Amino acid sequence: MKAIRSFTVIPSLPAKLEFLRILAYNLWWSWNWEAIDLFKRLDYELWETSGHNPVKMLGSINQHRLLEASKDEAFLAHMNRVKERFERYLKCPIGTIQTHLEPIHTLIAYFSFEYGLHESIPIYSGGLGVLAGDLIKSASELGFPLVGVGILYRYGNFKQYLNPEGWQQEIFPENDFYNLPVMLIRKNENEPLLIDIELADRKIFFYVWRMYVGRIMLIFLDANVPQNSTADREITAKLYGGDSEMRIKQEILLGIGGIKALTALGITPTIYHMNEGHSAFLGLERIKMMMEKYNFNFDEAKEAVMASNVFTTHTPVKAGIDLFSPELMEKYFSNYYKKLSISWDEFIGLGRVNPKNKDEPFCMPVLAMKLAKHINGVSKLHAKISRKMWQGLWPEIPENEIPIISITNGVHIRFWLSSEMASLYDRYLGPQWVDKPMDQNVWKRATSIPDSELWRAHERMREQLVAYARRLLVKQLKKRGASLSEIEMAKEVLDPTALTIGFGRRFAEYKRGYLIMKNPDRLKKIINNPEKPVQIIFAGKAHQKDNQGKEIIRQIVQIARHEELRKKIVFLEDYDIALAQYMVQGVDIWLNTPRRPLEASGTSGMKVVANGGINMSVLDGWWCEGYKGENGWAIGAGEIYEDYEYQDEVESRAIYDLLEKEIVPLFYKRGTDGLPREWIAIMKNSITTLCPYFNTNRMIEEYGELFYVPGTINFFKLMQDDKKRIHEIASWKRKIRENWNQIEIKEVTPCSQNVLKVGDQFVVEAKIILGNLTPNDVLVELYYGKMDSQGNIKNSKRAIMKQIKEIEKGIYLYKGSTRCRESGHQGYAIRVLPFHEYLSSSFEMGLIKWG
To answer: Looking at 390-404, 470-484, 513-527, 662-676, which range is the least confident one?
Structure first.
């Protein structure tokens, strides 16, 4: 029977404890140990059974316990300390980005399909969401002016359990929004704010929920409202659930609905950041709104939108991106595109590398890149891979000059750090490790931490990890209906003093969770050394449709059941943020085995660093930048293989060799005081070299410096003076495109000598036919460098060629020169590029003319 009316019941807290409700609804507590301890102190058992969810906990707690706490002077003193810190934190200013010149007034809208903020808010799947969650926390820490936009999934991601054979099963428990730290936004006391968007031949409606993460507000969209059909209410049911039609509906809601929600709330961002291509439809909605508000044509509105859009790509393979068929696009956008005053071919071409290819599907990252001037990959290697992957969008432009830069990912150190390590840093690094986590000089002080204290703190976390793993294993065996003997044995698995390797991530084939298990006999010898034991903890989910990933999990579970391994290797079900925290805080070695170059960045290994863990990884993603030789171990030397079976064989042997010859002997090499001094030296090298850089405070400051500030400045410039610059740049681009084919490079006059010495100058002249364009419209460059055996210029350099004179109408003489800096076989070419002060780069338009 359905209810005829609904109402909300909130916890009844004594007046003295009212702050607990305020604290529960702000995720600030999630990275502040004193606040977490406050909730634990209130009722530790309920804290655990509520999934570390203070909102749910306060709604379930015994009223008598609340009355007790309200009279407990020690508890009240603890609460008031937290209250004072929290209120002082919220008073810190927010609203500008400080630059070396002046503060920039801006507001960034950050769109992400998922957010991994805390285990009690299960609306995340993996690395993409956890990265978004860490970025939000760092934005709060730095006082960055940012608002997050996402979807509030009714079921979120699945919970994983294994059947007796080790095969992954999924269940989808429903999220109770009224027991999460979110509040429904209402237009008045009783009526929720209801927003609608067009979806194919109908309207769909959605609510907006609000969440606070420190000083940052996030808004989440929810289509499970009575005004929608049963089918449309499912749009916000599951993260990454359903087919491509469900995905396009979700992405329309996030992109177009997200813009409408911000507008309805009176929030006017200056920068829109698309975290992956899922939200790329926001660019279309922004163009439509610009056209309506300012009477722009499509090209003019597009210029304003491009200047203030940021796109971060996370996917190094085309198989992992969202593609929609032309038929599906027509179903959902056959009315929408007309509002943009462009043809259907122009519209669908926005999502194609080759707009003229009628069979090419509509690609969301392509749309995002065509509607953003600021594009980045998430590591240096990933940016390089992305430039190669998307070269078709900038034809004829050399791969290394394609305008996709790198901003390497990071982690929010305080959230992932154990309380033991945080206490050590407070004592030996001082408060600046919290205030200035990017300062190398601060982290260098880690060398002053006494070896004994660092080692004991890390050992305590390993002991806690082992205890937690045993509890989880017992719990999952009971659910599975295991025998009493199996359950009793689970209480003794793992050794709190043994070298512990952790592997926790999504189980996809390219991540190769099986690699360390490839030779079970050799692994058994390593693990079962009585004097130098080794153990491995596995955790991770496969996508519900990825049978290959599920098979890898099953194989690991089966091997781990061998009599010689069952106490040394465990697979822990339902990998989430809580389990991840225990693992990254307690392992000695974090193992990462992606198939290079398929790991865009990876952040799990960054999380172990501040906790004293050490990375052993393939040189892929972030580890290419992080590995310095004395701060961890590299598997291989960065090779890329065509034969995957051969690669697996070579790299699995490399893992065994590292363990047998270096890692295990070093871990167990103890001094007379029982300390592994050389191991601790590597721990300290890891902390001092990696913590200052691989954190989200540094990452978001790079976004500010490279994207947010320039984007804001350019956007304001374009919109000044009655938008005349918008009209100017749009008109200029039309002129360039219409006349570009007229450009020709003629009569190149080379240097008179074929052999030059280092230090000699060489001079080149050329006649450039510009037709209806002028020298002010173009940049003419001398492109030169060493040549390979195929006649290609490598490691190129460029010098600007100057216009000497106009030979006749539309024909100009250009001259360029440079000095020979190194010996060898070298060559040069001449090229012409568009030039305008409002272009983000000369390659923005994808136009180039080579001589």
So the answer is: 470-484
CATH code of the domain in which 769 resides: 2.60.40
- Judge if 60 and 113 occupy the same domain: no
H-helix segments, 11-110? 18-24, 33-42, 44-49, 54-60, 63-71, 73-91
* Cβ neighbourhood burial of 785 (10 Å; 0-12, 13-18, 19+): middle
3-state SS track over 568-630: CEEEECCCCHHHHHHHHHHCCEEEECCCCCCCCCCCHHHHHHCCCCEEEEECCCCHHHHCCCC
Per-residue pLDDT reduced to its tens digit, 113-131: 999 999 999 999 989 999 9
Q: Which pLDDT band, with edges at 50, 70 and 90, does 11 fall under?
A: low
Do 391 and 533 fall into the same domain? no
d(CA 426, CA 238): 41
Answer with the one of 665, 694, 723 that is the final residue of a domain: 694
| Shared domain check, 516 and 601 | yes
Domain assignment present for residue 281? The answer is: yes
Closest to 451 in 3D by CA, of 155, 672, 726: 672
What's the mean pLDDT in 376-382? 97
Which residue shows structure tokens 């999220």? 175
In a domain, 208, yes or no: yes
What residues make up the domain containing 23?
Answer: 15-91
**β-bridge pairing 811-819 and 802-808:** antiparallel
Helix ranges (H only) for 156-276 are 230-233, 244-252, 258-264
3-state secondary structure of 104: strand
Same domain, 514 and 635: yes
Token pair recorded at residue 202: 């109908």
Residue 257 is assigned to a structural domain of this protein? yes
Are 177 and 82 contained in the same domain? Answer: no
Enter the DSSP assignment of 740. G
Neighbours of 789 (CB within 10 A): 6
Within-domain flag for 469? yes
Longest Cα–Cα distance of the chain, Å, equals 96
Cβ atoms within 10 Å, residue 248:
23
Rg (the chain; Cα; Å): 29
CATH of residue 681's domain is 3.40.50.2000
Q: Phi and psi of 835, rounded to 5°?
A: -140, 130
Name which of 526, 564, 501 is nearest 660 in CA terms. Answer: 526
Whether the Cβ atoms of residue 420 and residue 460 lie closer than 8 Å to each other: yes
Say how many domains are in the chain. 4
Kindly state whether residues 508 and 621 are assigned to the same domain: yes
pLDDT of residue 701: 94
- 239 to each of 151, 152, 235, 717, how far by Cα in Å? 9, 9, 9, 39
513 and 374 belong to one structural domain: no
Q: Indicate yes or no: pTM above 0.90.
A: yes
Q: Taking 90 as the threshold, does the pLDDT of residue 747 lie above it?
A: no
pLDDT over 60 at 1, yes or no: no
State the Cα–Cα distance between residues 733 and 13, nearest whole angstrom: 63
Please give the pLDDT value at position 6: 52
Strands (E), 438-568: 499-504, 534-539
- Cα separation, 254 vs 715, whole angstroms: 23
Please indicate, yes or no, whether residues 835 and 798 belong to a single structural domain of this protein: yes
The first and second tokens of residue 394, run together, are 């900038």
